[in-house]
Structures are given as C-alpha cells and as structure tokens.
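Researcher: Next sequence.
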Amino acid sequence: MLFAAMNEHEAVLSRVSRLLHDEVSQVLSAVGLQLDAMRMDFREQAPGVDGRATEIQELLEQAIEQLRDITNELNPSIVERAGLQFGLDRLIGMTRAGFAGTLRLHFDASLRVPTILAKAFYKIADCALDIAKATPGCSLIDIHVKRAQGEYVLEISDNGPVDDMGSPPLGQLLMDYYASKNHVTLRTERVPGKGSVIRASFPLPAVARESAPESGS
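Model: Next structure:
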C-alpha cells in the first residue's frame, strides 16, 4: 500500500510538473513577447516605455527561471527529459546544500543509459544519498556511473560509520523496491571502519557489450 501510494504521488507530481512546464511557462513567455511588441508600438508616444518594459521583462524572466526550477524539483522523472547525468548533477547540487562533507559524481560520458533504467538508478541514488548524509560522521560520498563486467553500474560509496544492529532504514527498503521493480541487481556492502558501498547493476545489451570498452570493476 505504501509503495502504491508513492507511485500515485509521483504520478500527480509529474502531471503538475507538465502543467507548469507546458502551459504556465508558455503563457509567461507569450506575455514577454507581447510586451516587447507593445514597447515597439508605443516607443514614440511614450518615451519612458522602453525602460519600464525592460524591467517587467526581467521580472518575467526571473519568474520563468524559478518556475523551471520548481518544475524540475516536482518532476520525479527529470531523467526522461534531460538524461541521467543531468538529473544526478541536479540531485547532487540539492544534496550539497544540506551536507557539510565532500560529494562527487564520476559519470562515464560515453555511456548511454536507457530511460527506464536511468529512472531506477536516479531513484536508488536519491535514497542512497539520503541515507549517507543522515549518517553521523559521514564526510565523503562518491557516485560512479559506468560500465563494468558487461553491465551498467551505479555505485554509491560513503565513509559513514556502519551500524548493523538496527533495522534497515526506509531508504534501504525503497532501494530494494525500485531495484526489484526494474530487475536491477542491488548489493549493499557495509564494512566497519570503512563505510558502505551500494552497487546497482543491469546487463548491457549484447551489441554494447561487444563494442564498448570496460571502465573498471
């Protein structure tokens, strides 16, 4: 029931995001164009119209930019539009605001991750980041997206102290759910004194395995 509710919540956010992006943003852009046309029409009759119109257009541009940021945050499937690397870049940027340590992304730029898998990797990375940054003593998080051993691989490692005595956090349960839902192999390794490594993997297509060089294990 919890996961079904989450899926419905994501669907609602996606619809709101599309509404803001496809309709509201376009209306604001159209207002800017009409304002520019009005400035040209009334420039001679009202000498001060240029300055006022410019000020209004700058406000419109700020509103459109803020609306774009809100749209990206609302849309749980940002990778559908911009790709996994862009989505992870934004996710890391937002995470850094509440994380005092070092957070790094290593992305194989030659790798093209299919959209469905990219969405699963993004959600797993989001959960892993939440777990890592909430771990007292964690000061380093590394995210790797690469090809290795004939697979697409997402690895999130951190140096947070390991505590295997408690029950799994909600983020771990969510990662397990996203992995199983998308047939992704998920392994979590926790080493006392070293930290944790979460590895999500999915087989490369046969053609990609034959033509692409390995980038590590």
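Model: The helical segments are 2-42, 49-74, 78-82, 84-96, 115-133, 170-181, 206-211. The chain has a mean pLDDT of 84.
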